[in-house]
Structure formats: C-alpha cells, structure tokens
Design goal:
By secondary structure, the chain is an alpha/beta fold. The chain is about 40% helix and about 15% strand. The longest helix has 23 residues, at about 265-285.
C-alpha cells in the first residue's frame, strides 16, 4: 500500500510539472482494495483494470520503474510508451490491461476465465470496475455470461462513491447485492479501506473458484482522495466529506493494526523510508529513458503472419462441396489440429448456428464448441480475453450488422491492445460473421460494412467468394496471430465448387486474377465477384475483354495485381455490394490514381449500392443492390471512352 500511495503522489507531481502527458486518474485512497483483491493471486491469474489502474498493476506485481517510464512516454516503459496511464498492461504476469473504456475489461476477464476453464489449470480472473460501470451494458453481458458458464472470475467493484462527477446513488436504482442475486452469482461486501478484511474475503473466493465454484461479485466500499482526473475542480463534493474519509485512510488504519499487534514504530519508519527510496530511484531511472523513435511508429500494429504459399487451385474434376461445407470443414480441421481453438456464439453448439453450418461439431468437440447468450459485446470480449490468454478463439456474430452492438471490443480492444501493450498482448482472434442483401432482410440485416472495419488499424478483414477460398482463408484466419473479421456472404452458402485438399490454406492479403482479359479491369470481392464474372462473360460476346480480380482480403489490400492489370488494360471498374460513398472502392481508386495514373486512359468507375439503407420491398431492394447488369453497363460506357 505504501508503494501505491507513493507512486501516485509522485505521478501527481510529475503530471503537475509536465513530465507526464495526457490524462491521469489516481487511485490515492483506494490502496487497500487493490492490495487486498490481488493478495491471493499468482502470476498465472489474470486481472483486468480500469482507467484508475496504477494500484491494481502494482498490487499484481508490476515494477514501478517501467510504469513511471510508461507514463512519461518512454521506450523503456512497460508498453514502450504506446499505452500510457490508462492502458498499462503486462500480460506476462496476468495484467491484461488498464482500460480507458468504462466496463470494457469485464468481458475480457470472462474470456481469460474461459481459457482457464478450458485448460482446467486452476487459474482465475479478477475484473476491477468502478461503481459507474454497473450502468454499462458490458457489465450485464459479462456477468450474465460468466454466470451461465460458471467460469472462475471475480467481478471486483471499487465503489468510491462517484461515477466521474456524479454520486453513485444517482446512477443506479438497485444496489449491487440485488443485481448479483438476479444473475445468480455470489455477493460479498467488504470495507475496501481495510486491507486485511478485503484480502480475507478474496482469499476465500479465489480458493473456491480454484475448486470449481461459480463467479462472484465483490463490492469494496472505498474513496478516492483526488478528483476524477488530475486538475478536476471537484465542485461536486464537500471538504467535510473528504476530511471524513481521510480519517479512514487505509494506510493509517493498517498502521494502527500493526502497532496494536506489536510492530515496532521504527520498523514501520524503516519500511516507509525504503519504499520512498525505491520510488525515488525508479523516477530517476525512468527520466533517463528515451522517447520511442519515429521510425518505430508502425511497430506492434500487425504481427508477422505465417508463411502460406499460394496453393494450386483444386482441379476442375475434384469432388464438389458447398461454401457452407467449407466453413464446417475448416472449423473442424482447426479444432482437430490445435487444442487452443474453440468456437463460441449464439446457438453454434446445440443448433449448429442459425444456418446449420456447424452441425456435429459440438458432439465431436464438447465444450470447445459452446453456446452463448445473445450478447455480442460479451461474445467478442470473451474472444479478446481468451486470445490474450493464449487461446485461438473463433467467435460468431450472427449478422455483420450486429457489429454495431459490440464495436468497442473490436475497435478499442482487439485491434489496439497489441499496439498499446508494445506488442505484449496476443490477439489470435477470429470473428466470423455474414451478410448479404437480396432476400428482403431489411435495413438491419443486409449491410455490407467491410469499409468500416477496414478503417481500423490492426484489423484484418477477409471476404471469400468461393467454397475453396472460404476453406483456405478461414483456416488461415484461425492460424493468424492478428484479429481477423471473417465475412461470409449468406447467399453463397449453397454455392458449389471443387473441394481442395485437406491441407489447403490460402495466404491472407493476396488478391487473385480469376479471369484474364485485356480491355478493362474489374476488381471485386465476395458475391460481387460472381456478378463481375457473369458480366464479363456476357460482354465477351460484344468483343469486350474483361479481366476480373478477386480481392479476397480487404484489409490488408493487395493492389499489386490490380496495378499490373491496369497497366495492361488502362481502364478500371471497382464493384462491391456496399454503398458507394466511402466504400473500399474509394481507397482502391485513390491508390490506383496515385500509383497508376499514367496507365489510365479513362476515369475510374465504381459500382455499388445506392447511398441509402437497404430497403425491404423486393422491387426497391433490386433497384438498390448492384448486379451484373450494372457492372456490364458501366463497362460498356468505359469501353466507349
């Protein structure tokens, strides 16, 4: 507790003097809850933290010196200066990250606990959160999923009385104890300023979790002495209130206990002096650190991918299978090949998923194929946490449109944690989902949102068009060390094509020329590749030779074959199912205009959906959705220039 208190005091001074940039949220006054919660934990146990996480990290065993260096933005920092105060992490000792997003760490802790449950290794997870996080949907989804699966996790609430500037009483209508009963999980209330009481409660809970007990919520009542952030004017609480809590300083309370137990005052003074020297030395050493070099800006965004050479396509006379078979077979192959792989999602086990793609996998692999509640944030978050714990989760979000429900876990967690931890966080996560307009599914079940995902640095986005590519790319996605969103088109599930060999794995980020031509290049992806091919066949009779390129992966884009093709044809059409404005076609056009400008003999053309939400009425949907006729007409106009 002395180490945490002294650390925060020095950070306050460093921040005041401009040596720590950004934002700082100190945990002064909450030392007992951090130390007590982490007291029974070992290196293999996991914690997730909050924006007020310095104390949690120190209590779990992180050294002060690299933490000071991290706050100063040094290369020698815990996370090489990429994370800062709100994102300190060290997965190697079970610290899966402080987090700038309220409640975001709770689903991640459930993922770490799921990994522990699957491995049966006796480790546990503890998710720290503040009283304000109880109002967040991620809290509900995480606690409910943990309760359903009975994973070994403690949800540890540091109730310091305020959600940012608002008193806790104004934020929730039901106490946490009643909420715990509603979820069917245990509840323990502790004095968060009494380190012995907190440690005793946590020791009992952690022992029970290691023996197979279900999750629990701990509510530790405590108080933060500083404002929500350094510089907070704190107009929302009185001086009398602060003084009243200062009388219950956890360090003073424990010092009194030690003296009553016979500890010599000189020994306490010696301990305080030793901690002070340790922290002063740590600050001095951290100051000697260097800023990260600008040349390292792109480090830790994407991990090197496994080397998969482009395999030969299956012969035309190979046995035929469907895209839906390709998904099933790829999942089965990876589940058999790697014990770290597991599959989770809504109705993926008992029902084999809504389209029946996974039937039989639960029977064969048991709890490694598991159903979740309808909780997309929890589903993706558990994938993030399990991936950080070294697993290779494949989680399903039923429709691409539903990513809006859980975007934080992709945007701010999966894609950023490897970078924010300076490369320390593993993230071999695959998120399977599907889309597809043309069946009157309406505006919330038909969208093609790949451009939104491709705009996120660190995110890989794959969109196969054939059964063989689906098999090979899904296997590559699961084996990839980076987070991958694997987008299938449901209208292609029944598409038949030659079955590749069982060891067929395609490299991610490699486009393919699927039809050669000399007059015009058409670039497309997913189902629109087939519309482009149909248009090319029709135009061949009119004397127009069309080359068709299948991107297969939209992030990263492989535009080498596109530039080579444009060099030959001098004309380019880009076709995708998404709406035209701000789609991936805009990025492709920009690159070709820059790199292949002198090869172009005509303006680049884009074909895509109209800039409206997908309509429901069949006639409107047909007018909205691009097809082979739209592509063919665009090619004709371009050929005439």
């Amino acid at each position: 507790m002395l180490r945490i208190r002294g650390f925060e005091e020095r950070v306050a001074a460093l921040y005041r003097d401009g040596e720590v940039p950004g934002f700082v949220h100190l945990s002064t006054g909450q030392e007992a809850s951090a130390v007590g919660a982490c007291w029974p934990l070992g290196t293999g146990d996991v914690i997730t933290s909050t924006h007020r996480g310095h104390g949690h990290c120190l209590a779990k065993g992180l050294a002060p010196e690299p933490m000071f260096a991290e706050l100063m933005g040094k290369e020698q920092g815990t996370n090489r200066g990429r994370g800062g105060s709100m994102h300190i992490a060290d997965p190697g000792i079970g610290i899966f990250g402080a987090n700038g997003i309220v409640a975001a760490g709770l689903p991640i802790a459930v993922g770490a606990a799921t990994a522990a449950q699957l491995r049966a290794d006796g480790t546990v997870a503890v998710a720290f959160f503040g009283d304000g996080a109880v109002a967040h949907g991620a809290f509900h989804e995480a606690v409910n999923l943990a309760a359903v699966w009975r994973v070994p996790v403690v949800f540890f609430c540091e109730n310091n009385g305020y959600a940012e500037f608002s008193p806790a009483a104004t934020q929730t209508a039901a106490p946490l104890e009643r909420r715990a009963a509603g979820y069917g999980v245990g509840y323990v209330a502790v004095d968060g300023n009494d380190v012995v009481a907190t440690a005793a409660a946590m020791r009992s809970l952690v022992t029970a979790l290691r023996a197979g007990a279900g999750p629990a919520i701990v509510e530790a009542t405590t108080y933060r002495w500083h404002g929500h952030y350094e510089g907070d004017p704190e107009r929302y609480r009185t001086e009398e209130e602060v003084k009243g809590w200062a009388a219950r300083d956890p360090l003073l309370l424990h010092a009194d206990r030690l003296r009553a137990a016979g500890v010599n005052l000189d020994d306490l003074a010696t301990l305080e002096a030793a901690v002070a020297r340790e922290l002063d030395d740590a600050v001095t050493s951290a100051r000697r650190g260097t800023s990260p070099a600008a040349s390292t800006l792109s480090d830790y965004v994407v991990r090197p991918r496994p080397s998969h050479p482009e395999p030969k396509p299956p012969p035309a006379d190979a046995p035929v299978f469907r895209t839906m078979d390709a998904v099933h077979d790829a999942l089965e192959a990876e589940l058999e090949a790697d014990d770290r792989v597991f599959v989770a999602g809504i109705d993926v086990a008992a029902g084999g998923n809504v389209f029946g793609l996974m039937r039989g996998l639960h029977d064969k692999f048991g709890t490694r194929v598991r159903d979740t509640p309808i909780s997309e944030t929890a589903i993706v978050g558990l994938g993030v946490g399990a991936a950080m714990a070294g697993m290779r989760p494949v989680v399903e979000v039923m429709y691409l449109d539903f990513l809006g429900v859980c975007l934080d876990q992709l945007l701010n967690q999966a894609a950023k944690l490897p970078f924010m931890t300076g490369g320390a966080a593993q993230m071999a996560l695959t998120v399977r989902t599907q889309f597809g307009a043309g069946r009157s599914s309406g505006s919330q079940h038909s969208q093609s949102l790949e451009a939104l995902l491709a705009h996120i640095p660190g995110m890989t986005v794959v969109m196969p068009s054939t059964p063989a590519d689906t098999y090979g790319l899904l296997r590559a996605a699961i084996e990839d060390p980076n987070p991958v969103v694997f987008i299938e088109n449901r209208l292609l599930y029944g598409l038949r094509g030659p079955r590749p060999p069982a060891d067929h794995v395609l490299p991610i980020g490699v486009s393919a020329v699927v039809r050669e031509g000399s007059d015009i290049t058409v670039v497309s992806v997913s189902r629109m590749v087939h519309e482009a091919l149909a248009a090319a066949e029709a135009l061949a009779a009119e004397g127009i030779s069309v080359e068709v390129i299948d991107l297969r992966t939209v992030a990263p884009l492989d535009l080498g074959p596109v530039l080579e093709s444009v060099h030959k044809t001098s004309r380019l059409v880009i076709a995708h199912e998404a709406v035209v404005p701000f789609g991936i076609g805009a990025e492709i056009a920009a690159v070709v205009a820059r790199e292949g400008f002198w090869d172009l003999d005509a303006p680049i053309q884009r074909v895509g959906a109209a800039p409206t939400p997908p309509p429901y009425a069949p006639d409107l949907e047909r007018a909205w959705l691009p097809d082979r006729e739209d592509i063919a007409e665009t090619i004709r106009r371009l050929a005439a220039i």
